[in-house]
Amino acid sequence: MKSVATIAELRGYLSGQRRILVCFWKKGCPGCMAASKVIDLLHGPDCAVLGFDCTGGMKEAKALGVDNTPYWVLFERGEKSAEIRPTSDGEALHRFLTEKAGFALPEPILMAALEDGREYARNVQAAIAEILFRRADSDEDTLISAARLMILKACAGEDDIPACVDRQIAHCVQRLTEGAPEGLREQRRLAADRLRGEREKLTEDLEALRRRMNEP
Fold it and tell me: Which parts of the chain have pLDDT scores under 50?
């Protein structure tokens, strides 16, 4: 997908296209990773697709009324005609792409692409979390964020969520405290204590995720 990063660049494309879907994204954004698998399917004569790279900041996007990523805006003859957050509702996204943007995309294929994208995003996040968790220079907040991501990934498909959370917290605490270098022991001990206090929040987040996954 070709991308621009300024309104001036975008105007150049809008002036030459009758209908164009602009996908606002930034590097490291999990939702953008998930939506990328859908973007790969968007081909057709009636609507062009263009990325708007917000990695350097949201100032230009906010001038267009977009305050977060991922966010998709459909322009027709240079004017906004519709917009959507692509990862919020698969059925609404299908209607947006077929009825408003004019793409011929069967709903089962779209749903499969969204799920593939979510799995891809989870895998990337888990890999980054593992790297950060292992780094000697990661601070306490970074260690907690990394551990949370690892636990959410490990327990997302488990039937007994509280038991899984307990196991994963114990595993992360063990990794934090055993064999820590002399100068990092206190920092790692504090991170371990904080992580134990995350049990209830992690369980709630995972149960909410399971409810969303089971919604018809």
Answer: 216
Which pTM does this prediction carry?
A: 0.72
Task: Kindly give the residue spans of alpha helices, DSSP state H, lying in 54-198.
Answer: 59-62, 90-95, 107-134, 140-155, 161-177, 185-196
Q: For residue 139, what are the CA distances in angstroms to 112, 143, 144, 177, 185?
A: 38, 6, 9, 14, 12
Per-residue pLDDT tens digits for 90-140 = 999 999 999 999 999 999 999 999 999 988 888 888 888 888 888 888 888
- Return d(Cα 7, Cα 15) in angstroms, integer: 12
How many CA atoms are closer than 13 Å to the CA of 20, on its beta-carbon side?
Answer: 21
Q: How far is CA 207 from CA 31, 161, 197, in A?
A: 20, 7, 17
The secondary structure of residue 182, as a DSSP letter, is G
Q: CA-to-CA distance for 69 and 209, rounded, in angstroms?
A: 20
